[in-house]
């Protein structure tokens, strides 16, 4: 492959530009492009971390990725587990005097470089792509540094944050799109935090004593209930599926007449005697029927049985919370009708 059309890499003065934002601002002011403004995605950011291996050894690692991306810690750890990943601190950086903080470039990275630090890059850093990156000199960056011509990393790694519109890693044409999900379970990657504290060690396949890497998972009833509630509610309240509803029927006494409360109480007792779980709203005083109806919709019991004005004509209302369908049922048949609904 030829790079004849791409200018040779050249180091330029970029004083006071230790961050991507300050670098891009300086590039547009001092070295403007003819085609478009410089952007963070034109820069190659080199992030230093320390790998903590299961046997306790520590290894520095450099990750190169476009400047408009951040390293996703969880994604990085997923690529390297059971190895643990830590950010390289100032003390660790001081052990590598060839590296100039804020101006680190590929020239000083790689297993064959002066630093000897393994250098892996994001898959977007492919041969032929050109970058602005650190010149390993304070206040200086290299422009037109070309992957495959001016530097060759030791490998690639999928460690950058994922965004909407990114290419699908499993197909040739699709793009990624974020969407809301419901977390039904969780895996706790405990690593060796507690194992180190407890001195928990085992013999590995070579008979060497190593610290245990720990993990656990959890799927709890409360988490499942919350997920069901979130996935089935509507604009006015909860809509419990019958097989997980806290009760089977919500009986509402909607009125002030004693006859209404007497009939509602009798229906609630009859249903309970038949093994139907009942929530009976027998509130009196200033609690209006409208408030009771709203509360019934909010609570979301699958079947709402209302005893109200229809009692004078000998009927009660049975409402399906999910569909909103309402039917008038003779009061003498109401218990049997509702019990049949509950039992399917």
From TrEMBL:
<comment type="similarity">
    <text>Belongs to the class-II aminoacyl-tRNA synthetase family. ProS type 1 subfamily.</text>
</comment>
<keyword id="KW-0963">Cytoplasm</keyword>
<dbReference type="InterPro" id="IPR045864">
    <property type="entry name" value="aa-tRNA-synth_II/BPL/LPL"/>
</dbReference>
<dbReference type="Pfam" id="PF04073">
    <property type="entry name" value="tRNA_edit"/>
</dbReference>
<dbReference type="GO" id="GO:0005829">
    <property type="term" value="C:cytosol"/>
</dbReference>
<keyword id="KW-0030">Aminoacyl-tRNA synthetase</keyword>
<dbReference type="InterPro" id="IPR044140">
    <property type="entry name" value="ProRS_anticodon_short"/>
</dbReference>
<keyword id="KW-0547">Nucleotide-binding</keyword>
<comment type="function">
    <text>Catalyzes the attachment of proline to tRNA(Pro) in a two-step reaction: proline is first activated by ATP to form Pro-AMP and then transferred to the acceptor end of tRNA(Pro). As ProRS can inadvertently accommodate and process non-cognate amino acids such as alanine and cysteine, to avoid such errors it has two additional distinct editing activities against alanine. One activity is designated as 'pretransfer' editing and involves the tRNA(Pro)-independent hydrolysis of activated Ala-AMP.</text>
</comment>
<dbReference type="GO" id="GO:0002161">
    <property type="term" value="F:aminoacyl-tRNA deacylase activity"/>
</dbReference>
<keyword id="KW-0648">Protein biosynthesis</keyword>
<protein>
    <recommendedName>
        <fullName>Proline--tRNA ligase</fullName>
        <ecNumber>6.1.1.15</ecNumber>
    </recommendedName>
</protein>
<dbReference type="InterPro" id="IPR004154">
    <property type="entry name" value="Anticodon-bd"/>
</dbReference>
<dbReference type="GO" id="GO:0006433">
    <property type="term" value="P:prolyl-tRNA aminoacylation"/>
</dbReference>
<dbReference type="InterPro" id="IPR050062">
    <property type="entry name" value="Pro-tRNA_synthetase"/>
</dbReference>
<feature type="domain" description="Anticodon-binding">
    <location>
        <begin position="248"/>
        <end position="338"/>
    </location>
</feature>
<dbReference type="Pfam" id="PF03129">
    <property type="entry name" value="HGTP_anticodon"/>
</dbReference>
<comment type="subunit">
    <text>Homodimer.</text>
</comment>
<keyword id="KW-0067">ATP-binding</keyword>
<dbReference type="InterPro" id="IPR007214">
    <property type="entry name" value="YbaK/aa-tRNA-synth-assoc-dom"/>
</dbReference>
<dbReference type="GO" id="GO:0005524">
    <property type="term" value="F:ATP binding"/>
</dbReference>
<feature type="domain" description="YbaK/aminoacyl-tRNA synthetase-associated">
    <location>
        <begin position="14"/>
        <end position="145"/>
    </location>
</feature>
<dbReference type="InterPro" id="IPR036621">
    <property type="entry name" value="Anticodon-bd_dom_sf"/>
</dbReference>
<dbReference type="InterPro" id="IPR036754">
    <property type="entry name" value="YbaK/aa-tRNA-synt-asso_dom_sf"/>
</dbReference>
<dbReference type="GO" id="GO:0004827">
    <property type="term" value="F:proline-tRNA ligase activity"/>
</dbReference>
<keyword id="KW-0436">Ligase</keyword>
